[in-house]
## 1
Amino acid sequence: MRELTVNQPIEPLRAPGQPPGSAADPVIDARGITKRFGDVTALQGVDLEIRRSELVILLGLSGSGKSTLLRCLNGLHGMDTGQATVLGQPVHGASGRQLRSLRTRVGFIFQQFNLVGRLSCLENVLIGALGRLRGPRYGVLSYSAAMRREALGYLDRVGLADKAFQRADTLSGGQQQRVAIARTLMQKPAVVLADEPVASLDPENAGIVMDLLFQVCLEEQLTVLCTLHQVDLALEWGQRIVGLRHGSKVLDQPTQGLTRDNVMEIYRRVAVDTAEAPA
Ligand SMILES: Nc1ncnc2c1ncn2[C@@H]1O[C@H](COP(=O)(O)OP(=O)(O)OP(=O)(O)O)[C@@H](O)[C@H]1O
């Protein structure tokens, strides 16, 4: 595991309107989440507690339920049973309005970046601010000068200030994911859910993007739950590794002290049947 390079003063975390809680209260608190799609049980009684500023990596074979868990946590999927609280807001049974409000504080980073290709990088970053604005915006000039400066600052932070006025779809995959990270920062989230953020990138760019993503999350004291397929990146970056197998949690341990072999146990027993363990 990498050394943390940023001092992290811990202050009590409170959702708006909530009574003061302890700094030790979990930011993500999921209990017994079960999710089925027809006959397929994607998640089976999953418990997960994540504390403020923790960087947690979620591993498991393809189809083990990783994306479903992320989506249940921000309400994109309803859960069949169980409950989850994120930033003090119950997700189960939440209204559409409550979920939209929660999602303004939960950044989501996608494997395929989800940028608007025909828009400039700067405008894509500005889109991250829409959750704190009223009404739609069309064009960079429809945002305030202060917001444009802020967005430029985030582009600079990810090393792409010189691409601000370039169309997003003219950038490489690694650069596009860096713009997506800047857009997430512009959102000013407290939690980041990242679903295989480097799966579309070559190993060199995967390392660069992971480096950047986790460094800015540390600096901003963000709480991160990130799915990955690369065990080595998980061991390098995660403070804790959670493993899913067939929708059930089979590992949940701090990275420190975990060996690659320990982690490969997540895959090994199924690999006998499926022969599809990762390299
Ligand atoms: N919208 C859906 N409709 C039907 N089945 C789904 C849906 N989403 C997921 N599933 C099923 O739920 C199971 C878990 O899928 P999920 O995408 O969460 O796995 P994953 O671990 O994220 O896989 P990958 O690593 O390939 O992204 C799979 O069997 C999948 O086919």
## 2
Amino acid sequence: MQFLICKTYFKDSLLTTYARSLSGYDPAYLLPGLPEAEFAKTFDEATEISSGRFNSVFPYLWKIKKFLNIGSEKRLKEASSRLRQFAKNIIKEKKQELSKNSSLESVDLLSRFLSSGHSDEDFVTDIVISFILAGRDTTSAALTWYFWLLSQNQEVEKEVLREIKEKSESPVYEEVKDMVYTHASLCESMRLYPPVPIDSKVAKHDDVLPDGTVVKKGARVCYHPYAMGRLEVLWGSDWEKFRPERWLESATDGANKNGKWSFVGRDPYTYPVFQAGPRICLGKDMAFLQMKRVVAGILRRFKVVPVAEDGFEPVLVAYLTSKMKDGFPVRFEERSD
Ligand code: HEM
């Protein structure tokens, strides 16, 4: 059986997981028939058109289309309205459930929001949509590139598998937290292929950067995690290598006590994969938790083998997130051991 990893499996499984942890709602996209995911399709359409605005050669074109309500902007408006309606239905159902059973208050994020007095429907709708947007494509992009890198670095896969096998079949939070090598390998993968490859900010006031660069009010300033992850000055002359060990302290420096690695993080200004400062990603820990559980769940039972021709080199396409051009076709081989 083949899966286009980034196009179907990860996105839909993550959407299912997020929908459940966010709202308790299960869109049932992981039924064996992998049913057509209407919500996911609409979401993709909306994000693709929105990101197209950034890359537009004539930036004012989309504004004209929006004003006239034609073409892609018309489709975006319709998609956004369908998404909002979908989110509103979930909220309505959740409110009804809560009114019948208040013990649901602590079960999922949406229940918590509603129970803590956030009753404004538009506000809660924005929360539901922005959490799915922030958490779905980022994590699926990270995992697509991660499985590609693992397939090219067997010794890393072996070490990740060794760590996974020390844990229970469905590792609980404490166990996932202890998967230090897997954590390091995910950080290393996102160094080379950051899910948000480039990000920009608009200056609210005239400003001067620490190096003296003058930034005028309204100017767009970009930071570039993809380029920064490949800088020799930050990562050394072997920056090209996928080497999780650069995030770990080894036995020789005394930290690998009892055969355990110890993780050495980098500051977020050197590694801005989750951004840095007061607006740093709020879902970072949740993202690692989800990714480690998915990695453990898949690798324990399957080997993920690319079905591409020998010499295949994936091409990164940067929309809002780092997609692999045409997806990543793979075969899942069941492990015999
Ligand atoms: C590997 C996965 C992820 C990566 C690489 C990532 C990266 C980022 C980045 C770069 C930003 C800054 C965007 C900006 O302000 O321009 C951000 C913001 C944010 N992320 Fe994530 N994210 C990930 C997963 C998640 C998940 C799973 C959630 C929640 C379920 C989440 C929730 C958020 C939220 C709410 C913000 C906005 C924070 C604010 O503006 O104060 N993220 N993320």
## 3
Amino acid sequence: MTARAFASPDKGLEKASVDPQVLDWAQCLAAMPAARHLVESTTPKALRERLIALLCQGPGLVWANCLYLDGSGRWLGLDGSDAQFDCSDFGHPYAHVIRSGKSLSLSVRDARARLDCPAFQAQVAALDGQLRLQVRPLRAANGARTWLGALALVGESESVRALAHDEGLAALEALTCQLWHRLTQQQGERQRSQVLKDSLAKLNEGARRQALAERLAGDLLGGSAAMQLLRKQMVRAAETNLAVLVQGETGTGKDRVARAIHGASQRAQGPFMAINCAAIPETLLESELFGHEKGAFSGADQARDGLISQADGGTLFLDEIGDMPMALQAKLLRVLESGRYRPLGASEERRADLRLIAATHQPLRERIQEKRFRADLYYRLGQFPLQVPTLAERRDDIALLTDAFIADFCSREARPPMGITPAALRQLKARHYPGNVRELKNLIDYACAMTPSGGDIEAYALPGEQAPLGEALADGAPVVGEAALALTDDVIDLRQTLREVEAAIIRQRLQRFDGNRTQAAESLGLPKRTLAHKCRLLELDSK
Ligand SMILES: Nc1ncnc2c1ncn2[C@@H]1O[C@H](COP(=O)(O)OP(=O)(O)OP(=O)(O)O)[C@@H](O)[C@H]1O
């Protein structure tokens, strides 16, 4: 390309009434395709590539490059290359033009001799020393004259010298800068709106998960940190199809966890099939799970679908997986890995699309050591492991669970609402629960049954830890004694505590004798008048 390639037409052709920029129709029309090609660029990078291709088409130039200033304003980069030019390194010509805002022109030989930046030297290494290099700063024509980058052109000496005054090139450069600036702004806006969209999506995602976790709180009660964490993990598990292994002591709520994950998952509309591996004889377990063909074994009069087939499209819950026989464990592993199973007596395999949730209170790692559980199955089952906390690890939840279980009892038994005295609640909180939530629930059911309609559960209505449930109130005295003992750790006001214990005993006796004070006093070895006095003091008259 020669300078003429960019040159504006002869000034003599300019007409007074015509925009001074539009000088010659023929030349304008000839330049149109190239301009349109640039205008159609959708990114600054595409624009630079088109510009370079355009420049290199013209005679006289052997090399053209367009550098861009990065977001920090400290570096100039090259499309499709890792090379970076520090704007404060005057070992290359680009820093000079960016600093001065003016074009720079020198021979390639001089450039090699005077500029020592290795990246720049690599650029010009293959060029003939006779050629000339011109570097032109590129700035947007906006008010701030924002820096965009630099244009580097190499060609025959004469051609390059002429470029300095080439109005055609200046016009092409101006158009490029205008488009570049606009595309950069659009790109920035697109990026900003994408960031906004992403963060909104994240917020929505977070809100959705939070709402789901709160919904789970209706099934799986507990406001303790341990339960909140568990519910969050359950939401994550529900979002996937991974096998879930729920571990935890007996009565902690593993069954509830499994059902809640199913209910929160995309399979919620599908079946939830559950089986307790410990409750089914070994010989039956296989056919229960895999199903069988007619005549597969004696007594198999009809073909029957197993739980794996019935759980298709839903969830299969294997409770007490630790009790599954080794031979069956191998078959289960195959189902998990291939999604295929073979009913007993069937000649062909079938497919099942199910999510498996397994639960156990057994320490499976120990069972592996004892060679009673397959390690490969353990790892396959535990794609998403969940540990359900014991009640002891979340004593804070006892009050909430208690209220819920009382309300549940009253609704089941059609009783009026019932409460619990602070002393009884303190005792509940102080107890040891080897049976975890199930034990607490049973205990509350019992205490509710022992409390008169509309009354509050008193400490004495709670069975003693050592006493079998059924005997708890058969003889009031020992129970109250134990209740009082269980309270000792919590006692902060001895007199108040003694009053509460005394009141509980008297109230209990009055209930037992249908309010007959004479009989109650006799049974407690007290004169009737003393009991009456105590009732007044303890404000038991109105109850
Ligand atoms: N977080 C909870 N909220 C409400 N009820 C619960 C909770 N956890 C457990 N329960 C209740 O406790 C009882 C035992 O729960 P579940 O059967 O789920 O425990 P589990 O860990 O599966 O017991 P096991 O190991 O003995 O099979 C059930 O009545 C259940 O409703």
## 4
Amino acid sequence: MTADIAASIDMLELRNAQIHLRPASDIFTEADGFSALNSESADLPVLECISAKCRAVISLQGAQVLAFCPAAKQELLWLSPLSRFRPGDAIRGGIPVCLPWFGVNRRQADLPKHGLARTQLWSLDDVQQAPDDTISLRLVFRPNSEDLALFPYAFLAELTIELGTELRLSLRLSNEGQELMPLSFAFHSYFSVSDSSVIKLEGIDGREYLDNCQGLSRFVQSDSLVFDREIDRVYEAVGASQTLIDSNRNIEIDGRGCDTVVIWNPGAVLAAKMDDVGQYYCRYICVERGMAFGDELQLAAGGVAEAKMTLSSS
Ligand SMILES: O=P(O)(O)OC[C@H]1O[C@H](O)[C@H](O)[C@@H](O)[C@@H]1O
């Protein structure tokens, strides 16, 4: 299929599957517990994909997966009931894709947090269906002239989202300019949990981390992590996989080319000051995978960085 499919389809019929282009507020309604904020504000276009393997919702703003539920299983991702679906506002939940930098820009702190791509529209330029009925959507983003005024590096971001019984994100970032390009990024996943205070996380024990609640000082993860207050930690050069252990299921987060692990939950005190989190802070844990801090890349002219993350539950 060819470029900008989203602009030309309301509905795409595939084998045992359908993809609908819909306004976010048609899907995340007050009846489903989403706040009235949605209907007051301008809306965002989302793709709802329903197949025999899963249901997923993807926002074209930010190429952000907002929901992913494998057939006969529970939803993996958390989307805040207080989310705003206003063009240009970050959506709280799902999997924001942070690039071409993660968090606060380390060279220029007044640049937008988490990069340029999460609050802008991406183009859907390909839809494929594999023989096993897994659906792949490819979305692309290139900085516009305003972006280039902030970050003067021409690049192309291509995100392939594979929707099967697992969710796989493959990100390819190409430096299309002539200069060495500083690059950090992350898949900033928000996982739906029964209660953050009962969650265990495997795969980071014994690791060194930077504590973002203590000026990025270095510590070693000696005990199990307990989510009983604000947690904001960066583990560099970890890679491999982590497992979120909830009372009734495990979520497996596997990644390649995304070696940094960031763990974040605001806790009650900070959440109370965040108008799109509030009392719901205990319903999610962020386990983010990317290349940031000590894993930041310097991409040569014409160079390419690739990262894959696969999420599954059992
Ligand atoms: O509020 P946001 O810009 O979406 O950022 C949400 C969070 O993202 C990451 O996890 C950072 O480590 C946190 O410091 C930050 O608070």
